[in-house]
User: Fold this.
Amino acid sequence: MNSGTKSTDAWGCSLKTLQVDPRGLYQETVRGGIPKGRLEAFWPHAQRAWWEVQVERNRGELPFLDTPYLKETDHVIEKARAYRDCFDPVVVLGIGGSSLGPQALVEALFHPWMALESKAGQKGPRVFFLDNLDPSTCVKALEITLEGNPLVIVISKSGETIETLVQLLAFLGGLKSRFSDWKDRLLVITDPQRGPLRKFAQEEGLQAFDLPPKVVGRFSVLSVVGLVPAEVLGIDTMELLLGAIDMDRSLREGEGRPALETAALLFLLHREKGKYTWVTMIYGDALWRVGPWRVQLLAESLGKREDLAPTPFWARGPMDQHSQLQLWLDGPKDKAFTVLRPLSHTFDLELAQGLIGSEEAKVLEGKRVQEVLEAERKATEYVLAERGCPFYRMALPLTPRALGELFFFWEMETLLLGKFYQVNPLDQPAVEKGKRLTWALLGRKGFEKERGEIEAWER
Assistant:
């Protein structure tokens, strides 16, 4: 390679089960990266960000980081476990942070059954995540649900999420008309004291799980939001939490590394090299739902400044090699990459021999599908490096413990990035206006000003 790149085949470091290799973010490895000396000069600022996050955590401002340690979490798991192996299908109503985390978790651990059959494993129940609002999807999901022995889990931190309330009303009507024990088929996850969903649960005597007010939706996968659906579906949630604890301890022992290192490098790549588009490239369908989860985590947490905010998106390999790679290689050099893969796959297949006489087919004969996928990944990493596109690599086994490590790592990385960008990563003030306007258009009292505003705009 004549581009000043070096091999990145060896892994950088292993954090229990999660492997992280940040070397492709450095100029000494990939031409478009950050010089090591620049990170060294920035490091005192990075260390200050690390300690500021620790101070906020000690003040109780980041409770989602401590969920794995709480005794209350054991009680949540015990209650949710009582619903295991009792229902089919299991339907999860939620949107954004109330769905993306648990969906990523379930899809990863029950692949390929979730992808092809919407089932939690070979013998598990069917699972439907209604993570968007669409009338056709809603009607068909309700029809399938009422034909079975359903459990519906409704998740909304505020209890007044429009899309989730619409879905709940649709399903509630069907459940009440078909099942005399409908109250036993509905689990609620919401604010412990406030909101219409909490009030409804109290009035009807429903099983409700408390989502603490300071646990932000996009950071909630290791809280009741992720734990309850996972436990109901048979996932070892204690292992998930132990993975988060492993990562927490590793980061503390390393004074933030490598999450502090990757956060600092991504920030410097943006501010000093114009690489504001961050692509999470995922090889392995089991992990693809982690992509939208990370996109929300970064976008809502860091998208607060017009002059300085990254634009995250995700891609699937090798599919998007055939749709986006051309742009990445020959287009604007405004991108930094995270390449994520599972260390192994649930199933694999050796390709048959002697079926097609072409030279190309003969090259593939006798090889395993995973071997081909790995070749695709390595080739993509090489051309990214050759064109000066920095990236860091992550790999993990498909286990609850490893996923706990991954979720905690990226949550901490995002909190640290919030310090570098000088924004509050825990709020999303701009989207509140859209919510108010939607309520206004639907005729909610108290929103007359917003309704007049949008009607004037439409004219």
